[in-house]
Amino acid sequence: MDYKALYEKTPPTRLFVIVAIPGIISMLVSSLYVIIDGAFVGQILGSEAFAALTLVMPLVIINFSIADLIGVGSSVPIAIKLGEKDEEGANNIFSSACLMIVGAGIVLGVIIFIFAESFVRIIGADEQLVLMGSQYLRVYAAFSPFTTILFAVDNYLRICGKVHYSMVVNILMAVLSISLEFLFLFVLRFGIWGAALGTCLGMSICVIIAFVPFFRGKMQLRFTRPRIDRKTMRIIFMNGAPTFLNNIAGRFTEIIINVFLLRLGGAMAVSAYGVLMYADSIMQPVLYGLCDSLQPAVGYNHGAKNYRRISAIMRRCFGACAVLSMAMAAIMTFAKEPIVSIFVRAEDAALVALSVHALSLFAFAYLTRWVSLATQSYMSAIGKPGHAAAISLSMVLVFPITFLFLLGPLGLDGLWLNMPFTCLTTAVLAIVILRTHYRKDMSAGASEGSSTLSGPEIK
User: What does the alpha-carbon distance between residue 213 and residue 240 come to, in Å, rounded to a whole number?
Assistant: First the structure.
């Protein structure tokens, strides 16, 4: 379907189904892959390898952070430019962003490859964890120039209305990565580096497949000779800042939490925390995929000044996020043991008991987590990076660090409760920002003689 017809004329509910459902399916498949990845490492290589994986995963995500900064940061202005009918400007941002992502991938890959052992050792890990963690990191570093652009091109496909093609690419990536990882770990008996190799090979293949429509020149976005000027870079970095800060600050927080975990409970506590993070990966990416898939539609209509349509789209986004989040809270509460058994061997009884207890406390986070995530996505989509960054930093840095110390007397329970308290306080902040923005839009709408709003209705 042509992107103009999709974003301008398709009824909001049908648009939600066409755009959001493939986005949800894509991220659900990716979530299942992440779960299987953790299960393979935990069940085949053991709890120590699982602990090493948990320790270095924040560093792996940091490796993708610059690509996310540029990819997400370019997607918003591209969608707005297309809404304004400025295809030349959209193509320049697209081409510039692709070049910048590859360059950043090379630089970050070299840095992480050289200093992999130092990065893991500084966390406080013992030498065995340093060895396994650095092996895992170096594989990602070597593939960095080829893999980091995957999530950006996924956004570009959806901007062009290729939501189903994007979904197929994501499903294929999960299938390829799972198959290769099974081959490397279970059949060939590679070490933990085999898990990283399987993922990176699957991602690299899918990057090529994702770019095929662009190479053929039959998409709304086309490669042009990039003009990377200060204005273009400023637009990209400002709009990508919330996602970038979320990645960097969130990983920084996880590293600090890992340090506390090592001191309070050693490798077993780190493994239990890893179970929480992998359980979280079941739903958090789904919520993100739902919101992220609607950003091009919101951004396009914001550029076209279709404010009533934006309101209709976001009401459906908030409602769906709430339903999915509550469902996840229920699943985590009533299926703790089955979830833990995916990642932990039955014979590790102490780790099983600790993980089940931790998950019972962590589950409360999903009662309110959806509020801040949906609000942040909306603010990013309409070009309000400051508001989005405030929510993002509060969620991943300010409140988690604050509660790390406030809940410190509770020991490990304080760490398991960190996310629920963080989600609750960030939800309150998000509601305040959303209401403030809502009132400003009412004033702006009144001055223009319009009764439409540029935000979701709050009743």
Answer: 25
**Cα 31 to Cα 38, 279, 377, distances in angstroms:** 11, 9, 19
Domains of the chain by residue range: 3-447
Are 418 and 400 a contacting pair, CB within 8 Å? yes
| Distance in angstroms (rounded) separating the CA atoms of residues 347 and 345 | 5
pTM of the model: 0.69
Strand segments, DSSP code E, in 249-353 are none
What is the Cα–Cα distance from 209 to 33, expressed in whole angstroms?
19
pLDDT tens digits along 392-426: 889 988 999 999 999 999 999 999 999 999 999 99
Q: What angle separates helix 349-362 from helix 418-447, to the nearest 10 degrees? A: 30
With tokens 């379907």, the residue in question is: 1
CA distance 251 to 269: 18
DSSP state of 9: T
Question: How far are the Cα atoms of 162, 175, 336, 450 from residue 29, in angstroms, in the given order?
Answer: 18, 9, 21, 42
Give the C-alpha separation, 182 to 166, whole Å: 24
Contact 177, 199 (CB under 8 A): yes
Which two tokens mark 15? Answer: 């648009």
pLDDT in tens, 327-352: 989 988 999 999 998 888 888 899 99
* Token code pair at residue 233: 């870079």
